[in-house]
């Protein structure tokens, strides 16, 4: 089992520690994606900023979906999610045994419809 951690989960963890996220990271089950790293870099991750981003970047990476795979293959367009969210959905689908953990309601709904939503207690 592996779990692609969405930006929303990281941001929540930065505000108040999430023990489940720590467990996934320490058991090498947490996945990241360049989209998540870019979104985190656009915000204010905890200091030391560069080290935090570097450490998250060391996690295993989900497969990278092409734009065709993101938009056309599953016809994700018109569902209320942007390119970053759709990229994470497609990448999760392409990564064997992966699920997607997000706190974003629209993204979670789509992940649930695709049976790839990571379900658990938030804290």
From TrEMBL:
SUPFAM superfamilies: PIN domain-like (SSF88723). InterPro entries: PIN-like_dom_sf (IPR029060). It comes from the Bacteria. This is PilT protein-like protein. It comes from Caballeronia terrestris.
């Amino acid at each position: 089992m592996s779990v692609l951690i969405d930006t929303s989960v990281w941001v929540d963890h930065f505000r108040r520690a999430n023990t489940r996220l720590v467990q996934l990271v320490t058991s090498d089950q947490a996945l990241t994606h360049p989209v998540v790293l870019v979104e985190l870099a656009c915000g204010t991750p905890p200091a030391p900023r560069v080290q935090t981003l570097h450490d998250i970047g060391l996690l295993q990476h989900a497969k990278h979906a092409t734009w065709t795979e993101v938009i056309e293959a599953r016809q994700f367009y018109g569902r209320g999610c942007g390119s970053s969210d759709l990229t994470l959905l497609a990448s999760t689908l392409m990564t064997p045994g992966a699920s997607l953990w997000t706190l974003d309601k629209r993204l979670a709904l789509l992940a649930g419809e695709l049976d790839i939503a990571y379900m658990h207690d938030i804290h």
